[in-house]
Write a structure and sequence with these properties.
The protein is 75% helix and 2% strand. The protein is mainly α. The protein has two domains: 1-125, Butyryl-CoA Dehydrogenase, subunit A, domain 3 (Up-down Bundle); 149-280. A two-stranded antiparallel sheet has the order 1-2. β1 (20-23) and β2 form a beta hairpin. The longest helix is centred in the last third of the chain and has 37 residues, at 207-243. The chain is globular and about 70 Å long. The two termini are 33 Å apart.
Length: 289
């Protein structure tokens, strides 16, 4: 998912830099490439931020997979938790990103020789095979959350809470939107996790059915928070390198800005998904077809 999304992003970025259309809002006499239009920037940043978050989360899962291979039980529990999240969120992301790539191309996105539509077609199968993403959501809710009464999920949430305390140490106004958005999203995910665990308790009325109906928004909420945590860690690493005068300054500042965009445009969706997971089961279960 990450790889085809990245290729689609690079393709769309190149096109947006080359395609001239419209004028500058501040200077009507000057024609501009579409990459200078605010909405095209927003779409490109959406692609970029989603890719960076999912790539980092994939690497995080791979790290724990290596640790688990050495007999680390805690790492194995983390791999088990992250696997359905990485698969489902990464592949759903690739469909969204490649569709946005077509949008940036405009009508040219449907012209085969541009290649934009091919990325979308390549991505569209990804949420289907290797276990549909609906099955991945059921796996997260039942086998990875209810199996241990939420212990592995709560351990992960505790790490994100500790990450918030680390963000507080940065004392940077530019980081505040990320800190606030991640805090709010973490609270939403914590509540949704408690709801899932509660519905899985013996005696809960229609508990299994409720969890099944709510598993997809629960997974989406979890994935957004996990992505937000990875973006926060990238910000802290970038800030440290900037303070020590290491690395490429433009690249590091771009990392921080991309994380800010994730915080204000993408991460808040976690709160809506949490609400859907806790309040939305009955409308699904009572539907007649």
């Amino acid at each position: 998912g990450v790889s085809v999304a990245e290729r689609s992003y690079q393709h769309a970025l190149e096109y947006a830099k080359d395609r001239e259309q419209g004028t500058s809002l501040s200077d009507k006499s000057r024609g501009v490439a579409i990459v200078e239009h605010a909405d095209v920037k927003r779409m490109l940043l959406t692609m970029k931020a989603n890719i960076e978050a999912c790539r980092a989360l994939t690497y995080e899962a791979a790290l724990h997979l290596d640790l688990a291979a050495q007999g680390d039980a805690e790492a194995q529990a983390r791999v088990d938790l992250l696997t359905p999240i990485v698969k489902a969120c990464g592949t759903d992301m690739s469909v969204e990103v490649t569709s946005t790539g077509v949008q940036i191309h405009g009508g040219m996105g449907f012209v085969e020789e541009t290649g934009a539509a091919q990325f979308y077609r390549d991505a569209r199968i990804l949420p289907i095979y290797e276990g549909t993403n609906g099955i991945q959501a059921m796996d997260l809710a039942f086998r990875k959350t209810l199996r241990d009464q939420g212990a592995a999920a709560k351990a992960y949430l505790s790490e994100v809470e500790a990450l918030l305390r680390d963000l507080d140490q940065l004392a940077d106004a530019k980081i505040l939107p990320l800190r606030h958005a991640l805090d709010e999203a973490l609270q939403s995910l914590t509540a949704a996790t408690a709801w899932v665990v509660g519905e899985g308790m013996p005696g809960a009325k229609n508990g299994a059915e409720n969890v099944a109906a709510s598993s997809v928004p629960y997974l989406k909420c979890f994935g957004l928070v996990a992505g937000g945590a990875m973006m926060a860690r990238s910000v802290m690493a970038a800030k440290q390198q900037l303070e020590y005068g290491q690395g490429d300054e433009d690249f590091l500042n771009d990392k921080i800005n991309t994380a800010r965009f994730y915080a204000t445009h993408i991460l808040p969706q976690a709160n809506a998904y949490a609400k859907a997971s806790m309040d939305g089961a009955q409308s699904v279960l009572e539907a007649k077809f």
